[in-house]
Design a protein that fits this description.
This protein is of the alpha+beta class. It folds into four domains: about 1-105, Winged helix-like DNA-binding domain superfamily/Winged helix DNA-binding domain (Arc Repressor Mutant, subunit A, Orthogonal Bundle); about 125-250, Rossmann fold, CATH 3.40.50; about 265-365 and about 370-380, Serine Threonine Protein Phosphatase 5, Tetratricopeptide repeat, CATH 1.25.40.10; about 390-525, Serine Threonine Protein Phosphatase 5, Tetratricopeptide repeat. The chain has helices spanning about 30-40, 45-55, 60-75, 150-160, 175, 185-195, 235-265, 275-285, 290-305, 310-325, 335-350, 355-370, 370-385, 390-405, 405-420, 425-440, 445-455, 460-475, 475-490, 500, 510-520; strands at about 1-5, 10, 15-20, 20-25, 45, 85-90, 95, 100-105, 130-135, 140, 170, 195-205, 210-220, 225-235. The strands form three sheets. Strands 9, 10, 11, 12, 13 and 14 form a six-stranded mixed β-sheet that branches. The longest helix is centred in the middle third of the chain and has 30 residues, at about 235-265. The protein is elongated and about 90 Å long. The model is unreliable at about 105-125 (pLDDT under 50).
């Protein structure tokens, strides 16, 4: 079917827009938007209808919609100022006002192949403000067509899991699968779908075993950012599918964040927007030092100045205040704690469905407001929203350790390590493990984990305290005294009486255990 307006012809079957017989290059989502408008001329199309028809109901930012509307207008020789064919109806949506006639065109030769335009006839779409990714259909190398369903199921699960990351723009399954049966260059995919990253892979079955390989590619440069292989038994194919999904998403999410941070750091300061300030601040936060936090906090505030509803930035800013309190770096504790609580409450209010905001905001509230139960509930919700978010697991594990749930804490922390084995915040996982094992009475293990944390971040006050207390309670006075000297060099004002205010330890026996250990190691009353 062809839709004719002015000198343009939109051919639905061929998925082609022409102007006086010449092809106008448009991306798949721009084509779908234009098709939606010309099929319903003179009717106001709401934002919700756009999301359902073009983005399969997935929530995307206002700027993404605006950029695609601008691309539609450009393709048909219109503009936001002129609005000759496509008009914006304030607070309602958009209306196509051109005269449209419908003609029967030649049927497409193969609808399954004609779903998306070939890469060579399209132009690069405007990249979304957020990092963006397409997961291509995995190749079936088994020689067994029956395994196609398994490969497709794995990819669909990966797409669904990545879509839970609010900071990531994920191309819908139907658009990603439009390249089925084609040999494609990831850079061409990036141009067609308007994404910065492409995940591709393969499935190979051998007997009762299956091997999945995956690689993450920067579609702008063609550089390989990550590659991994996963193997398992087909005895429980759905369990294997879940395990592969968890492993892939858990591995590539930190890779994507690192790649985006490096990209932001290469940009000149005068070109930064809210998200780039956020990324630069994240790079500082990951290092955990006092100087890094002092640099990160103003960047998070700058991100909030540019976007007053940036829930994750509120959560991270609150978390900076928590980290300053934990390490004894606050100058005006009462004012800074109050500010941290304010930021954390905004994070969890604005980010009810944002796993990152709930994770950092909830954890900050537990420490700054003493609401450990509430913090655990918020982090549990974050894990429901995004089961592959490693910080939700390790920070939840820390809170469970402080709550006295040592076995659950250890399980959560082990799961976080499995999700992100090369995480830049591994020292925080080590501290969580040290807490959990210390309260469980595993003093040697607690000391080992605390020492690992200190080897990565020598200024980590709580790790130094756990080393001192563990050795003291385990009958190693020399090591305990050495650790206490280190602790007091980091914070000379720390006292036994301030431990209760320093850490929100919930069980009296756990608080007494830590106080006794620190007292034996030589901490003044």
């Amino acid at each position: 079917m062809q839709f004719v307006f002015e000198d343009y012809v939109l051919d639905q079957g061929r998925r082609e827009l022409t102007l006086r017989g010449q092809v106008v290059a448009v991306g798949p989502q721009v084509f779908d938007l234009l098709l939606l408008f010309v099929r319903h001329p003179e009717r106001v199309i709401s934002k919700d209808e756009l999301l359902d028809a073009v983005w399969s109901g997935r929530i995307v930012s206002e700027s993404t919609i605006t950029s695609h509307i601008n691309a539609v207008r450009k393709a048909i020789g219109d503009s936001g100022e002129e609005q000759r064919l496509l008009r914006t109806v304030a607070r309602k949506g958009y209306r196509f006002v051109g005269a449209v006639t419908v003609e029967r065109g030649e049927p497409a030769v193969d609808q399954s192949i004609a779903v998306a335009p070939a890469p060579e006839v399209t132009t690069r779409l405007v990249l979304p403000e957020k990092p963006s990714i397409s997961v291509l259909r995995f190749l079936n190398l088994s020689g067994d067509p029956e395994q196609d369903y398994f490969a497709d199921g794995v990819v669909e699960d990966i797409i669904a899991a990545l879509s839970r990351l609010r900071w990531l723009f994920v191309i819908a399954r139907n658009s990603s699968f439009a390249f089925k049966g084609r040999e494609v260059d990831p850079r061409a995919v990036g141009e067609v779908l308007g994404v910065r990253y492409v995940l591709e892979g393969s499935v190979r079955k051998c007997g009762n075993r299956v091997r999945i390989t995956g690689q993450l590619i920067d579609a702008m440069s063609g550089a390989h950012l990550w590659a991994e292989r996963f193997e398992g038994s087909l005895d429980d194919i759905f369990k294997l599918q879940d395990q592969i999904t968890e492993s892939v998403v858990g591995a590539i999410a930190p890779q994507l964040e690192r790649a985006e941070i490096e990209r932001a750091q290469r940009k000149s300061t005068d070109s930064l927007d809210a998200y780039d300030y956020y990324l630069r601040a994240m790079a500082k936060l990951h290092s955990g030092s006092r100087e890094a936090i002092e640099q990160a906090l103003p960047m998070f505030y700058k991100a909030l100045e540019l976007d007053a509803e940036f829930a994750a930035a509120y959560g991270m800013a609150a978390w900076c205040h928590f980290w300053r309190k934990l390490n004894g770096w606050m100058v005006d504790p009462s004012a800074e704690i109050a500010e941290g609580i304010r930021l954390a409450r905004l994070a969890v209010t604005l980010g009810r469905d944002d796993a990152v905001a709930l994770t950092r905001g909830g954890h900050a509230l537990a420490h700054l407001a003493g609401d450990v139960d509430g913090g655990i509930a918020l982090l549990d919700r974050a894990r429901l929203l995004n089961p592959n978010l490693a910080p939700a697991w390790f920070l939840g594990g820390v809170l469970r350790a402080l709550h006295g749930e040592t076995e659950a804490a250890i399980n959560d922390l082990n799961h976080a390590v499995r999700l992100s084995p090369l995480d830049p915040e591994m020292f925080r996982m080590h501290v969580g493990m040290a807490f959990a094992h210390f309260f469980a009475g595993h003093l040697d293990i607690a000391a080992d984990y605390a020492e690992k944390a200190l080897s990565n971040l020598p200024s980590l006050l709580v790790a130094a305290a756990l080393v001192a207390a563990s050795h003291a309670l385990n009958g190693r006075p020399d090591k305990a005294r050495s650790a206490m000297q280190r602790l007091l060099s980091l914070n000379p004002d720390l006292r036994i009486g301030s431990v209760r205010d320093w850490l929100p330890i919930q069980r009296p026996e756990d608080l007494a255990r830590l106080a006794d250990g620190l007292r034996l190691a030589g901490l003044p009353e």
